[in-house]
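#lab-general

N.A. 3:47 PM
ok so I finally got the sequence cleaned up, no stray characters, all 142 residues accounted for. can someone with queue access submit it? mine expired

B.Y. 3:52 PM
send it over

N.A. 3:53 PM
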Amino acid sequence: MSLKIQWTITDGGRKDAFPESVKKQKQIGDCVIRATAIATETPYKEVWQTLFTKALSMGFFPNNDNVCKAHLMDQGWKELKFGKKLIRMDDKKIRDLSKDKWIICYTRSHWVAMKDSTIYDTWQSSLNSMDAYSRVFRVYYK
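B.Y. 4:20 PM
back already:
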């Protein structure tokens, strides 16, 4: 039996933190904040504020990969890079890493929280534009 990646729709708490922003715009570009809030089980607005503060000190925008990586490392998360041998989102290694714990996957220009082979995101981000499973560049885990 092949276990496929599941998907649960969630905004990570954005609607509660900023209800007006959700009414006006569907795509906000907050995947770093959303994935981090979900995987660290921290309120969205708290992650938002932390990443904005860190971004200001680093000279980047809050959704910059360097900012999120630094934030996660500060919290004791580890980084697993796959290098040239990228793995598919539905690969057994990814599913095993997410068993009973949160991980954050970085795919092409997108960050997503995952637990127990389930993606938690506002859209089905495990699939790319050709309905193939996205390749994972890095995984952050605790």
